Amino acid sequence: MSNGVLCFANNNSEINYILQAQELALRVKRYLDLPTSVVTSTPNKVDKTFFDKIIPVETPTGNYKRYYDGADTHVNVAFNNAGRIDSFDLTPYKQTLVLDTDVILCNDDLKNSFDTNYPFQIYKDCTDLTTWREHTEFDYINDKGISFYWATAFCFNKTAETKIFFQLLKTLRNNWSHFAKVFDLGSRNFRNDHIFSMAIHIMNGFMEGNWAKNLPGTLYYTLDRDLLHKIDDAKLIFLLQKENIHGEYILSSTKDMNVHVMNKFSLERLLNV
Amino acid sequence: MSKGYMLVALGNDYVEQACLCAASIKKTQDISNVSIMTNDAIPTKYKNLFDKIIEVPQRKSDKSFYSTEHRWKVFHVTPYEETIVLDTDILFLTNIDYIWETLKGFSVGFLTDAKTYRGNTVTNNFYRQVFVKNNLPNIYNAFHFFRQDNIALDYYKNLEIICKHSEEFYDIHLKKLKPKVSSMDVNHALAVLNSSLEKYKITPINFVHMKPRVQDWKVANESWMEDLPFYLNEDLNLKVGNYQQFGVFHYVEHKFCQDVIGRYNA
């Protein structure tokens, strides 16, 4: 049986996802001892030495999304990351861990996801590095809606069941304006977390359930309003936006913790050094 | 007919709800005996849903908002040896016949586990301040059970006294907060406290409670129907806010009854 990590890297005008993917692949090798394949619309920009396979795709269509770089700066740029819905078709592995390129692996917890026979694993809960922020939008997709799951990281086996799941994701994506209304998301842009949450809810028979098992370990996150200040191997140093004080930060560090860094600009600045 | 459901309906809205409840019981339960205690007319097309249509004994007038001075009488008029008493605004969605086996050890019992439409246990006590402040047992009379035995008879005699003199009982027992009107939930809770019941919590079953402020929402209107769509398909499967509903559904809003009762006519 072949195991591996799959990531998606489609650069936009401001963010170099391929650079992030390279860093991810290095850490995957170090902590999980697994190969990484990258799906990209610009394979010629990829340094082949980092990856097991480079999987070319057409330039995906995406939404425009506001990306913050700390509390005060933001830009609106294209977000071309709906490709993960095609993970089942694209992956070269029998069991695949799909990771966002802005996840910084600092431990081997996710290795355990390959020691199970669960067809599909994902995080339902991730943990904010601050203790003072409340993110109810990460509990349910909206105030009255279904449970939220993080499409940032998921692991699947190629089975008949997961094939249905990924087909369902495609159906939801292809009829997004309809299903956004059904799930009371109004005119909100397509979002991977939401579409995965919908599909899992349907796989659970329109109720809370355990079709999707929890990924092992904890995935922490910081918002794009925070700043990643330093990467020192498995130690990460952040500036986290203070509670109720706009534009001021508190210093915080993590060690041996996997962190989803939503401020892609600050991540890229450190990777470019 | 040793087992069955009793509904108390005082007023036209409640009669309509009782008819819907009875229809849903007939549709989903193998043990589907239902009787009703009412002084109001049952629409002809629904009469056959009920084993017995029983007049409220000695009813001259309703003094209380929830007719609590009459509702205790259900014990004395039920045609069943084992009775589940229901609020009228309850809908049965799937079979719960297994509950009767569980009730073998009970003389009187109440549901205590209310769920949100998302399946979470209700923890918000917005509507239960009287219970919290006075440390009353957190029971729901919307679905409760009694059998015809001496323990239950004693219990219901006690309940009768509480219902008839609720103000005095509230003055004595509810020092910290009193309900604005006589409440059957509170009266039952006081009766439980005054009883010798060894067990009264029916735990193998729960019900979905659609009062809006227990749903763990940031913003809630007065009626859940203003906030959530529902879908009742041809097979009478109900989804509320994209959540499939099962078992006992306490819908609270009469408008819901009006919207769906036509589906049960066929």
Task: Explain this structure.
The complex is a heterodimer of chains A (273) and B (266). In chain A, a hairpin with a 5-residue loop joins strand 4 and strand 5 (74-79). Chain A has one domain (3-126, 148-159, 212-271): Spore Coat Polysaccharide Biosynthesis Protein SpsA, Chain A (Alpha-Beta Complex). With 273 residues, chain A is of the alpha/beta class. A seven-stranded mixed sheet of chain A has the order 3-2-1-6-10-8-11. In chain A, strands 7-16-12-9 form a four-stranded mixed sheet. Chain A is globular. Chain A has six helices and 16 strands. Chain A is 23% helix and 29% strand. Chain B contains ten helices and 14 strands. Chain B is 30% helix and 19% strand. In chain B, helix 1 (12-28) crosses helix 10 and helix 7 crosses helix 9. The mean pLDDT of chain B is 93. Chain B has 266 residues and is an alpha/beta fold. In chain B, the strands form three sheets. Chain B has a seven-stranded mixed sheet with strand order 3-2-1-4-8-6-9, sandwiched between helices. A four-stranded mixed sheet of chain B has the order 5-14-10-7. Chain B has a single domain (3-264), classed as Alpha-Beta Complex (Spore Coat Polysaccharide Biosynthesis Protein SpsA, Chain A), CATH 3.90.550. Chain B is globular, with a radius of gyration of 18 Å. The two termini of chain B are 26 Å apart. The interface between A and B is medium-sized, with 15 and 15 residues.
